[in-house]
Amino acid sequence: METYTLLLVLSVFWHYTDAIMWSLAPNTQKCLKEELHAHVLVAGEYEVTEVPGQRVDYIVRDSKDNILSQKDTITKGKFTFVTDIYDTFEICFISKVPPERRGISHDVTLDIKVGIEAKNYEGNTWIAEAAKLKPMELELKRLEDLSEAIVQDFTLMRKREEEMRDTNESTNNRVLFFSIFSMVCLLGLATWQVLYLRRYFKAKKLIE
Known about the structure:
Blueprint: E1 2-7, E2 20-24, E3 28-36, E4 41-48, E5 55-62, E6 67-71, E7 76-82, E8 87-96, E9 106-114, H1 126-131, H2 135-203
Parallel strand pairs: 1-3
Antiparallel strand pairs: 2-9, 3-8, 4-7, 4-9, 5-6, 5-8
């Protein structure tokens, strides 16, 4: 089975609310990957065209191959999961066609929302029903969640900045030590070469 991976970096896809659509060739696999920090809600909705005698499966997993969501022979449905740790997550759609059949491509539509976008605050949602919130309180709740998400993003950015600064300082120190070591080696080699040549010329009585 051939495998095709769509690696979308810097939240190009997962943080958009618009759905994406592509053609899934027979007996192939296409995956979408994204890095997410811990405790993030992810909600997805998919739709796959039906082809008699063929099937499409999907699987959601992390970098350690832990399965977060999975279903075989899909046509239309939804999935949700919450990340436990900062990791790279991927969702793969897999086409399976029996060897005796001539395969036809499936059209796959996928809409993924992350974080605040994954929560539905409109109308009689489960959030409003569970908390019995009034419209104003519901809007305040949405703004509160949005503020928390922004704070988490800034915290993550600051942590990455600190890690990059530590890495730069460590790299600079290593380069400095390597430069000093190289200079010492060159000076030692030059001194040894001068002494060796002096002994050689004295042995040949070319110099006194």
